[in-house]
Amino acid sequence: MLITSILGPVLTAQFATKLPLPKTREDEENRNIESTLDEWLPQLKNEIKNDHFTVLIPIYNPYTQRDLIEMGALLAKKESGIIVPVSIAAAHVHMDDPQVDGNLKQSQILLDRAIEISQEFEVSAQPIIRIDDDAAQGISRSAKEKNANLIIMGWSENTGLKARLFGTILDTVFWSSHCPVAVMRLLDHPVNLRRILVPIKNLSQATLETIKFAQLFADSNQGIITLLHICDRQTPQEQITEFKTTLSKLITEYELSKECKIKMIIHDSPSQVIIRASHQFDLVVLRSFRRRTAGGLAVSDITTEVLKKIELFFSFIWTTSFMILS
């Protein structure tokens, strides 16, 4: 017993890092990366087969709607697509209630402004007003009805009791939507966001989709993408080199981005690295993995930790815009 307790930690520290990692479900998805990339990437290149690339943008805050419309217009224009501004007017038991008419009038004002902004970017807009007793479901249903390729929403800082008990509109849209959802908090106009940071954990289909989305925005805005991969201190050097080589080959072979840099950092706290590195960029694109559980939507641990720190820094030192792609 004494010998085991003494030698155990020593042997573990020396040999544990050399042992093969157990195969998890995520590993199964990422194995044979060279062969599966050939299957994934053609799908990514041809995934948009609608008549128009459609970006649905819920409008509810007149102070933030310009940046959201501007972002959607940049992406839609790059793909020769359209934007669909949608305003959800709260329903009422009696549809002849004056409050319903007031809600519809306010929605129309917001949509008229959205059309004006879209015209500045020479992008077609198809605004809709939806009467619904659930704003989140109204957004998800509108996106499905319009066969939207992307939903763009603003970041919500609602942390009240109701939000903690029942979740926010963002939580519900993330959980129920059929297409990717981009949630953003922009501290500058989208046309000024050119230095883009994309933290990546591994080479998976989700990673490729995130890079493709960042590329779409970078191409529409003459931006430069930096892919950031953080390794812990126990990662063998040959594994780090192999990852960087494979990623470089992926970028070159499939032309994921013409202006793309790779940065590898060894550190035990990925969230701290992302926070520190973000100050050198205009926009950080984070990935949220949709895992539908009985308790709702679960996001990746690193993204959650970064968001907690972002919330902490918002009021005084946070100076970088960010986007979460689900």
TrEMBL record:
One Pfam assignment: Usp
Similarity annotation: Belongs to the universal stress protein A family.
Record-linked PANTHER family: STRESS RESPONSE PROTEIN NHAX, UNIVERSAL STRESS PROTEIN UP12
Protein's UniProt name: Na+/H+ antiporter
Domain of life: Bacteria
Domain UspA: 55-185, 194-310
Database matches in SUPFAM superfamilies: Adenine nucleotide alpha hydrolases-like (SSF52402)
